[in-house]
Design a protein that fits this description.
Layout: E1 2-6, E2 9-18, E3 21-30, H1 33-45, H2 57-68, H3 74-90, H4 101-111, H5 117-136, H6 167-179, H7 183-194, H8 198-202, E4 209-210, E5 215-218, E6 221-222, E7 229-230, E8 239-242, H9 245-251, H10 266-280, H11 288-300, H12 305-312, H13 317-323, H14 325-342
Antiparallel strand pairs: 1-2, 2-3, 4-5, 5-8, 6-7
Helix pairs in contact: 2-3, 3-5, 6-7, 7-10, 7-11, 12-13
Length: 343
């Protein structure tokens, strides 16, 4: 086997087993070394590296994540669906076989004009994972993901502070929901007080509430796609969370139909939360921001990182540190000042 250059073109030579020995096959005229290598690989394997690449990139990506990411959480699946929508919008007519580095970079340049670093990185990551598998499966011959430049709009960057309520605004929200109790408002209160994920709270039933010890048990979650119970995100997510007495006072008078405490959709709870925030004149946030609000209030009041991580059900302490790195940096500066005052 050999790939070599003569003049301005590339040549490939392959030796294959044949009757009585080996048969040498030569071919030249390739414009690039990679094209010569691709031909060489096809001859050796006896199959085309482009068996599936007549599919649109969007169709290939959809088939890929449904097959290889089927066991991911519904939140993660929605992210892959979002990436699919982006591909259909920006690359509607691009075939897998034509999706090279140049097309990938052009897409990143265009998409990054009005999207944050986190969003662009997520879409790039999904596409890269898909294409790496395509390369392994020999659906493409050349890796189009190498040495790409991540382009994004700094104006769309959101700090963690943009994703939670300050303590005074959180107290306003708690006070309003407590005095105007409804299904969605009791769920909002539960989110602020517990820091639990939406799916975890959706799965709560009366048997999960311990009024004597004033704790709730997180032991399952609701799949946002099927509406059925499933396992929590990770082993550490199975946890017991202490709740304030005020919450239990409201729970004892809370009426709900059906087995679950909260039969409400993600869209429904977010709409009601947005309306309440607007009526109170506070920053409009999503339901997931209540989880960040809960954590940020605890960290600001010198609650240990280990406790916060366990309360949130993070897989490990590193996840907590990564999510709240900016807050922790501010806290570190305060600790620096306190430390120097000691001396």
């Amino acid at each position: 086997m050999a790939v070599y250059k003569r003049g301005s073109t590339w040549y490939a030579r392959v030796s294959k087993p044949s009757k009585g020995g080996y048969k040498r096959i030569n071919k030249g005229g390739f414009a690039t070394k990679r094209k010569a290598q691709k031909w060489e690989a096809e001859i050796l394997t006896g199959q085309s590296l482009e068996k599936d690449n007549n599919l649109l990139l969007a169709d290939y990506f959809e088939n890929w994540f449904k097959k290889y990411k089927a066991n991911r959480t519904d939140v993660t699946i929605r992210q892959y669906q979002n990436t699919l929508s982006v591909i259909k919008r920006y690359l509607p007519t691009v075939y897998l076989k034509n999706f090279n580095r140049d097309v990938f970079q052009t897409f990143l340049n265009e998409y990054g004009k009005d999207h944050s670093k986190e969003t662009v990185s997520k879409r790039k990551g999904h596409l890269t994972a898909c294409l790496k598998d395509a390369l392994i499966d020999k659906d493409i011959a050349i890796d189009p993901t190498a040495r790409l430049n991540l382009v994004y709009n700094n104006d769309n960057e959101k700090n963690i502070e943009d994703k939670f309520l300050e303590i005074n605004d959180a107290k306003k929200l708690i006070d309003y929901c407590s005095k105007n109790l409804s299904k969605s408002r009791f769920m909002i209160l539960t989110g602020i007080y517990s820091g639990a994920r939406f799916g975890e709270l959706r799965a709560l039933i009366d048997d999960d509430i311990d009024t004597k010890n004033k704790v709730i048990s997180i032991n399952k979650s609701v799949d946002g796609l099927t509406g059925l119970d499933k396992e929590t995100k990770n082993k550490q997510s199975n946890r017991t969370i202490s709740m304030p007495s005020d919450w239990f006072d409201l729970y004892l008078h809370y009426q709900h139909s059906g087995k679950r405490l909260f039969e409400i959709s993600s869209n429904g709870i977010n709409k009601d939360l947005k309306r309440i925030c607007m009526s109170l004149g506070i920053k409009s946030v999503t339901f997931h921001a209540l989880r960040h609000t809960h954590a940020s209030i605890l960290l600001a009041n010198d609650i240990s990182m280990q406790y916060v991580s366990e309360r949130l059900g993070h897989a490990n302490l590193l996840v907590t540190e990564k999510v709240y790195a900016h807050l922790l940096e501010s806290k570190r500066k305060e600790d620096d000042a306190k430390a120097m005052n000691i001396f």
